[in-house]
Fold this protein.
Amino acid sequence: MTRRSSSACRAYLERLSRYVDGDLSSHARQGTVLHLQRCPCCHDLVESLTRTVTLCHAEGRRHLPAAVRARARARIAILLAAHAVDPRRRR
Ligand SMILES: [Zn+2]
């Protein structure tokens, strides 16, 4: 498993939440799946987003509340910033 550059991850930021929502074209989805297979940082983020979405759906919500989505994006930005500081760090 190789560590991708944070610039590659940034290109996937918008896609990750749409990936979790099942809202990508098949081509975009395939590219995202390939990135997730190679990138533990984005893979962890998707797992976290998926858990959040699952909890929201269990409460009967069809979409994430705006505040939850904003917190998820902030968490992604923090993790990417940490990744940019030390790309050798696992998490
Ligand atoms: Zn990534």
